[in-house]
Design brief:
The protein has one helix and 26 strands. It is about 5% helix and about 50% strand. The two termini are about 35 Å apart.
């Protein structure tokens, strides 16, 4: 039993510190409060906050009493505690909530996008997913809407294209907001290496950026392409395929 606990501790420790690539401090909690430790598990920022998020782009959002603000890696308060919630910085901006609505601040604390969204997500490839409480769209870093609030759901941009849902089916738009792959899939996924997994009739296949089916619908599960191959599962068997659908690994 002690050996099992030791293994779990080693696993959790390696999991935590595997995240220390771009940021060298990680959250640490004790007796209901949180601070930050370094890779040697030294307490670097005092354990005094109600909640903390990971450092991103040099700053971390932290909650003191009932409000959120941002600190740097020395524990200095960079953006004061005045928000009902604060996320992490991504592409120079962070989502913050005030009076029930989300807007965005830059690293100087300037409120650069007005508080007018019921929900908002991190920026990726220059766009943030936002909601008016019923429908979804994207905004750019100036806060301009890419389209009206016309989608039932949307997912972040990847390789210049984003998944959008309309009338229960998924398609893809480009960075101009134009539907470039029509709504036709039960489920869809982000593009990776020029291909995206999509589902119809409860089976997964793959399309290219022109919307052409490059690997037919046949898999019970499928994963994104990485270095030219993708892991798939068919009739309880897992193996790897290339972009033509040919098995290249685990074929026996």
């Amino acid at each position: 039993m002690k050996y099992l606990i030791f293994l779990c501790f080693i696993f959790l420790s390696s999991t935590i510190f595997s995240q220390i690539k771009d940021e060298d401090l990680v959250p640490f909690s004790k007796e209901g409060l949180s601070g930050f430790i370094d890779e040697k598990e030294n307490i670097v920022i005092e354990i005094k906050y109600k909640k903390v998020n990971y450092f991103s782009e040099g700053l971390a959002s932290v909650k003191k009493d009932s409000k959120w603000g941002f600190i740097d890696k020395k524990g200095n308060v960079v953006i004061d505690f005045k928000y009902d919630y604060a996320g992490s910085f991504a592409e120079g901006l962070a989502r913050v909530k005030k009076d029930g609505k989300f807007g965005f601040v830059n690293q100087k604390g300037d409120e650069v996008i007005d508080f007018k969204f019921i929900n908002a997500w991190d920026f990726n490839e220059g766009f943030s997913r936002v909601s008016d409480g019923e429908k979804y769209t994207f905004i750019n870093k100036q806060g301009d809407l890419l389209t009206g609030f016309i989608f039932d759901d949307v997912v972040s941009f990847s390789e210049g294209m984003a998944e959008v849902k309309h009338n229960f089916l998924w398609g893809y738009i480009d960075r101009d907001g134009t539907v470039v792959i029509p709504y036709q899939f039960e489920q869809s996924w982000l593009f990776s290496e020029g291909a995206a997994k999509v589902m119809n009739n409860n089976l997964w296949g793959y399309i290219n950026k022109e919307g052409l089916l490059i690997v037919p619908f046949q898999f019970d599960q499928a994963y994104s392409f990485d270095e030219g191959i993708a892991k798939v599962r068919k009739k309880k068997k897992e193996f790897y395929i290339d972009k033509s659908g040919i098995c290249v690994k685990g074929c026996n």
